[in-house]
């Protein structure tokens, strides 16, 4: 079923516009909340993914976070320069780079679950519990392949 036609489509009424605006608001608010830690919201995703054991390689991170490999490399460079992660070539396959958090990276990653929920809860304060659950369900449906 088509929800838009060339005749009915308007930018500000499109789902893409609303999703992009919501993303931009969250990024700005989370970046502000993370300023004292010296990281960005995108870097937060990397640190949390690694802390939670979801990813160990740049490729896995790129796939999970929906970030192209070039940008991922630049972000990993910054995190490595800050001393938050280390790269090491796999002994089994030299083409694979394994990532590990440093102690400083682990320390910051452990602080993140105390920061991000505050920002998200502020943005979600008008939602009932059932609205929140439905919102998450619909967003997940929207992004699934």
UniProtKB/TrEMBL annotation:
SUPFAM superfamilies: Winged helix' DNA-binding domain. Residues 8-144 form the HTH marR-type domain. InterPro entries: HTH_MarR-typ, WH-like_DNA-bd_sf, WH_DNA-bd_sf. One of its GO terms (molecular function) is DNA binding. PROSITE patterns: HTH_MARR_2. It holds the Pfam family MarR. Keywords: DNA-binding, Transcription, Transcription regulation. PANTHER family: TRANSCRIPTIONAL REGULATOR, MARR, TRANSCRIPTIONAL REPRESSOR OF EMRAB OPERON. This is MarR family transcriptional regulator. It comes from Caballeronia temeraria.
